[in-house]
Task: inverse folding
């Protein structure tokens, strides 16, 4: 449960910075969650969307494909707005 709350806290902190972006009219953000966390954050995302009106497009990616997906997205300039990282990747 602490892990889910930590991810949600990071998620909210990142949203603060997204709000400062020039494209503030955009009402959708893309969030990549890896492994089982995709299922764990769904209720939090629903609550966030209901209270802010911002749609969160969640994409759950298996940990086995996470590193490759991030590298490919970075190289293509197609990173998500928010993504979960393993603590050994920081």
Result:
């Amino acid at each position: 449960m602490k892990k889910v709350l930590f991810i949600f806290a990071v998620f909210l902190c990142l949203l603060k910075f997204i709000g400062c972006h020039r494209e503030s009219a955009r009402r959708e953000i893309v969030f990549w969650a890896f492994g089982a966390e995709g299922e764990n954050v769904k209720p939090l995302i629903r609550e966030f969307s209901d209270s802010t009106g911002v749609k969160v497009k969640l994409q759950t990616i298996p940990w086995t494909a996470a590193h490759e997906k991030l590298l490919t997205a970075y190289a293509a300039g197609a990173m998500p707005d928010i993504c979960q990282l393993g603590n050994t990747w920081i």
Remarks:
- The radius of gyration is 13 Å.
- Residues 2-83 form a domain with the D-Maltodextrin-Binding Protein; domain 2 fold (CATH 3.40.190.10).
